[in-house]
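note to self: dont lose this again. the chain is below, predicted strucutre after it. 119 aa total, dont forget to put it in the shared folder this time
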Amino acid sequence: MAESNPQNYSNHARFDPAFHFFLAPVFGVALVMSLVHFFYHLRESDVRDNIHSFLLVLFAVALLVMLFKERLYALKVQDRVIRLEERLRLMQILPDPLRSRISELSEDQLCGLRFASDA
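---
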């Protein structure tokens, strides 16, 4: 799929509205509310309410960790695709003596080359 304007370093970062403006705040608020619930029920003597409140906090933390781990997995896959894309690009544009040195480039260097021109 062709992009309407070429990607460069200043326009490559994007906010994902579903993640940044809905999921992360909702899970963050759920964690805060479960902590409030936990500390409110901590004063009570009923052990079952304390266990229930603790399990709510644990569940909220688990959901928040899961949300961010899923995001990190997607970013790692994206980085792998970028590195592969740049290695293929370098194989096409570099002369034969330099092709053998592509493996010497670091991950950061390969990602940085994404914004370099072929010239």
